[in-house]
């Protein structure tokens, strides 16, 4: 679980994963969300490089894995999400053959989404992503950094686009090979599946969920609090 980001787009404050949602660190919500799935037996939390001890303390204090049999280990992360995922993979024990990579910044992912991804990997898909259709029309532009209007260069057909979430599920040897290739070639990708695509391995999509959104900007905190309030009212947690 990459959790080492600063959360710059969320504004000043503690590293994003440590910020509170309804009084509980976002990371604790995310670990609980994964531990709730019977497909998950170990969560490797990749903490801010200088914050591994604090993260361990917070997870223990909040009893993050609760009554589940899920183990939680904490390792320090890296400069980029890609580095952090690679450091998390390096901490896996021998004998693991499949892995889910889940952003701590998606703390409210429903257990059904986690299980759908895990089931697709178990059934033989080497790489699986949860995703939703895109509600807006998406334009490709010529990027301008000076604030001037950006010329549109194309409009991809919306019905063929998907907004991709996490957890993304992989055969471990496929994901490890993808990260090794990217590390060798020095070419990044914004998600793990993107690296696997470059290996020429097929990635498949299963349905994502609105509540698996990524807490990125301040308005996302408002949405997350509203989802938690609705869950407390209807589900009791
Ligand atoms: N060096 C990094 C950067 C990001 N992440 C993690 O990757 C996930 C997705 O990243 P993002 O939402 O972009 O988080 P930040 O990098 O913290 O956000 P920002 O870009 O706004 O700073 C988050 O769980 C984040 O903690 C990480 O583990 N290591
Ligand atoms: C992995 C991801 O959440 C899939 O949508 C996304 O690409 C992460 O991007 P970020 O810029 O690191 O938040």
Describe what this molecule looks like in 3D:
The protein is of the alpha+beta class and 237 residues long. It has a single domain, classed as Alpha-Beta Complex (Spore Coat Polysaccharide Biosynthesis Protein SpsA, Chain A), CATH 3.90.550.10. It contains seven helices and eleven strands. The chain has helices spanning 26-35, 52-61, 81-90, 111-122, 172-185, 192-198, 218-234, and strands spanning 20-21, 24-25, 42-47, 71-76, 98-101, 127-133, 140-141, 152-154, 162-164, 168-171, 204-207. Strands 5, 6, 9, 10 and 11 form a five-stranded mixed β-sheet that branches. Strands 1-2 form a two-stranded antiparallel sheet. A two-stranded parallel ribbon has the order 3-4. The longest helix is centred in the last third of the chain and has 17 residues, at 218-234. The model has no long low-confidence stretch (mean pLDDT 96). Cytidine-5'-triphosphate is lined by residues 2-9, 16-17, 46, 77-81, 84, 103-105, 214, 216.
Descriptors:
237 residues; alpha+beta; Spore Coat Polysaccharide Biosynthesis Protein SpsA, Chain A; five-stranded mixed beta sheet; two-stranded antiparallel sheet; 7 helices; 11 strands; 34% helix; globular; binds cytidine-5'-triphosphate; binds the ligand C[C@](O)(CO)[C@H](O)COP(=O)(O)O
